[in-house]
Amino acid sequence: MRQFARLTLPLAGLNFVNQASRTMIAVVGPLLALEFGLSASELGLLAAVFFAGYGLAQLPVGLAIDLWGSRRVQTVLGIIAALGFVICAVAPGPAWLAVGRAVTGLGVSAGLIAMLKINTQWYPKDRVAGMTGLGIFVGSCGSVAATVPVALLVPEIGWRGVFVVLSLLTVVVAGWIWTSVPDGGPDRGPGAAPPPRRSFGREIGEFGKIFAHPAFLRFAPAIALLSALNFTYQGLWAGPWLRDVALMDDGARALLLLAYSAGLMVGSAGTGQAASFLQRRGAGPMLVPLVAMGIIAAVQLLLIFLPWRDPVTLGVLWFTFALAASAGPSGYAAIGQRFGPELAGRVATAINASMLGLVFLLQNAIGWILDLWPRVATGGWDPAGYGWALGMTVALQVLTMLWMLTPGRRG
Q1: How far are the Cα atoms of 137, 203, 281, 346 from residue 209, in angstroms, in the given order?
Q2: Which residues contact 349 (CB under 8 A, 6 or more apart)?
Q3: How many C-beta atoms lie closer than 10 Å to residue 213's C-beta?
Q4: What is the pLDDT of residues 180-218, one digit of tens each?
Q5: What's the pTM value of the predicted model, to 2 decimals?
Q6: Angle formed at CA 58 by CA 56 and CA 60, multiple of 5 degrees
Q7: Which of 11, 152, 209, 358 lies most in the core, judged by the most C-beta atoms within 10 Å?
Q8: Rounded Cα distance, 330 and 313, in Å
Q9: Cβ–Cβ contacts within 10 Å for residue 81, how many?
Q10: How many CA atoms lie within 13 A of 202 on its CB side?
Q11: Interhelix angle for 287-305 vs 214-232, to 10°?
Q12: Between the CA atoms of 290, 15, 253 and 358, what dihedral angle is there, to the nearest 10 degrees?
């Protein structure tokens, strides 16, 4: 655990900030919609620009981490994230708030990638998913911090004050990474051979080989969608769903989002450890993500056809949704094992770029679907629209699972 505390834990700290930033929009999103007069599609776009900045940075960030190491890249990106939070805190309107969210997305864009890179280089192959899962467990504590605690803080310091707190926390984490994580070349880990010397153009060209690799083409769409569904609902639409379909007030909604975050925490640690445990006993590394895909599809169908309003039942359903969706990173690790460790950063960012592109599209698409119905008297959106939105995401899951499981595909 000393190695975990020195290598993985500081990088998990920036994931904590990342998760908190995403989840708090589900908590304060309805407030922002009322304060700035936003429609569903406009609120979806405001949440999605975070993932646009996040996604556009993925391929350059993956290359930078492979070439210069997690310590340097993450320290710089942490400072950028802190700047994004400051812009949000002082934003006079939705346009500047969107700019701040995009800058924040850029700043936290390497959270998972940096951890995967360090873990791939420093731990045995069958421990990578487990160590990454523990790091994501720490990061997912940020989701918990952004639910009930944020709901309690907003009346005291306002949503702008919450952004200031996140900015200060990010600066502290960036300093921790700089002082703890190995630098540049030592990222390779003990006894590892140095990566081959290649021109910068050839390093960039490795992305083409990754995107064309049979394993990437077969597994990446389903894995990317699995994580994208988590970010789409945790990052925005779970909160409005609980308000408009389950008819919950602010306090009850914060508690249900806390249950969601608890599912993410348990799943982040549990699915990674399960994947490592099963792999050591001969199971395929994709087994856990595959089971998780089936579970999350079943939960969505239950939310469509049996839209309960009992808080305990809903807590169990959203807990299970998050627990299953948290298996995405174990799928990242499974795909990464098909490539050399010198490409770990680029493989992970190739999947992440695909996933974040899906998040951007899904968050906007759900907003467009909801706007097909008139606003209800309370200022929310018609429950029927949410059913069609969930139906869309289930259909996409079925398609990607069929693509992955079609006989004759290799990878």
Answers
A1: 32, 11, 31, 11
A2: 58, 59, 61, 62, 63, 65, 110, 113
A3: 18
A4: 887 644 445 554 555 555 555 666 777 788 888 888 888
A5: 0.67
A6: 95
A7: 11
A8: 28
A9: 30
A10: 5
A11: 40
A12: -50
Token couple for 251: 């306090």
Q: Look at residue 191 in the predicted model and tell me its pLDDT.
A: 46
- Tell me 233's DSSP state: I
Give the whole-angstrom CA distance, residue 361 versus residue 379.
24
Supply the DSSP symbol for 40: H
How many other β-carbons are positioned within 10 Å of the β-carbon of residue 278?
Answer: 17
Shortest CA distance to 320 belongs to which of 236, 230, 196? 230
The residue type of 350 is A
Q: Report which of 151, 125, 132 is spatially closest to residue 271, judged by C-alpha positions.
A: 132
Structure letter (DSSP) for residue 235: I
**Residues 91-132 pLDDT 10s:** 888 889 889 999 998 999 887 778 877 877 777 776 776 777
Instruction: Provide the terminal-to-terminal Cα distance of the chain, rounded to the nearest Å.
Output: 34
| Closest by CA position to 17, among listed 104, 118, 132, 131 | 104
Measuring CA to CA, which residue among 16, 102, 124, 117 is closest to residue 71?
Answer: 117
Give me Rg for the CA atoms of the chain. 20
pLDDT confidence tier of residue 251, bands split at 50, 70 and 90: confident
Q: Look at residue 281 and give its three-state secondary structure.
A: coil
Alpha-carbon span 207 to 232, nearest angstrom: 26
Per-residue CA distances from 113 to 159, 334, 389 (Å): 29, 14, 30
Whole-number Å distance between alpha carbons of 184 and 135: 20
Q: What is the pLDDT of residues 353-374, one digit of tens each?
A: 788 788 878 888 998 899 898 8
- Contact assessment for residue 81 and residue 14, using Cβ atoms and an 8 Å cutoff: yes
- State the virtual CA torsion across 281, 284, 289, 291 in degrees, nearest 10: -80
> What is the Cα–Cα distance from 74 to 107, expressed in whole angstroms?
8
Region of poorest pLDDT, from 25-34, 189-198, 205-214, 241-250: 189-198
Closest by CA to 361, choosing from 127, 47, 18, is 47
Tokens of 65: 């981490």
Residue with tokens 């004759």: 408
